[in-house]
Amino acid sequence: MAPASFTSSLVALGQLMRVSLAATAVGDALVGLAIAHLGDWPAPRAFLLVGASLCVYHGGMALNDWADREADTREGRPRPIPMGAVSARLALTTALVAFATGIGLAWCIAPAVGAWMAGVATLAIVYDLFGRGPYLGPLLLGACRAGNLAAGTMVARALGVTPIATDAGVLWVALLYGTYVFGVSSLGRLEDEEDPRPLGYRPHRALSRVLNGFTLAALGTFLVWPADLPRPTLFLVGVGLAFLIALTFGLLVVLPLFRHRKWTRADAGAATGRLLRGLLLVQAAIALPFAMVGALGKLACAACLLGYPLAKALRRLFPPT
């Protein structure tokens, strides 16, 4: 294979698997681990969750393009399969291998973690094959991300970590994190003709979910710390800063989008891409209280912040939507 052909094939695979947003899958795993371990450094094999999260994410992206290949061809969408850059068979094979590898890596941590990630992968598969409609698809995507974040708690429990985050706190943060994704996904499905109805104020409703999900998830980190342990002052400062970051993100990024009165498909696509990259800022804000008190929290927060400019740089070569 000629170098130019090889390079173009790699670019096509990268587009198929949406590598511009791969940092968000890494963020899910690291932030989830930081929350569960209250910011402390985990056992080395806990980091296998990062690989598991990446593989399940890439498997979901590849399967999504495989499932949509006929519609993409019919609508003339510039995606790898209809453009002939990647064969349908290769896309399906990539998806299945990625799913199996992700579940296998999680299983190496503990069987319970493997079963949990198999559940997250199942949600992704159901979304790719059946998740259509204004609510089902976004709900499945939000559930995938919430489950991915909560996987860190399964790891901590399987490895016998003490002290560990509260179940109620993790559930609150994960569900509201999923609400942010639900809102972004609701907006993203409006960018093409899959939903032919007039846009109206539906983008505004999606943006409300985005804003509420981010702000309340950041504030909800307070509940993660066990009630029978004194909350460190630095942790409380981190919760306050996370809430301020959420408010600032809302004022500078989300609220300006509400000014649109006549949304177009292109507007919805541009806003979706911006909010998808903002997912890394959401993750960094959630990790911030734990970065104030532990090394893993610092790593998670730094990885999310460094991933943001990387995702922004890669979006031209590997469009996120």
Tell me what the structure shows.
Helices cover 72% and strands 0% of the residues. The chain has twelve helices and no strands. α2 crosses α7, α3 packs antiparallel against α5 and α6 (111-130) packs antiparallel against α7. The chain is globular. The relative contact order is 0.15.
Helices, by number, come to 12
Q: Which fold does the CATH topology refer to? A: Farnesyl Diphosphate Synthase
Unreliably modeled segments: none
Q: What does the largest sheet look like?
A: none
How much of the sequence lies in strands comes to under 5%
Order of helices and strands: HHHHHHHHHHHH
Q: Count the beta strands.
A: 0
CATH architecture: Orthogonal Bundle
Q: Determine Rg (CA atoms, Å).
A: 19 Å
Shape assignment:
globular
Helix content: over 70%
Query: Mean pLDDT across all residues, rounded?
Result: 89
Overall domain count: 1
* Class per helix and strand makeup: mainly alpha
Task: Identify the CATH class.
Answer: Mainly Alpha
Intertermini distance:
29 Å
Give a short summary of the structure.
The chain is mostly helical and 321 residues long.
What is the topology?
Elements (H helix, E strand, L loop, with lengths): L2 H14 L5 H15 L11 H20 L1 H7 L12 H22 L1 H20 L5 H23 L8 H22 L13 H19 L12 H22 L10 H27 L3 H20 L7
Keywords, separated by commas or semicolons:
single chain; 321 residues; mainly alpha; Farnesyl Diphosphate Synthase; 12 helices; 72% helix
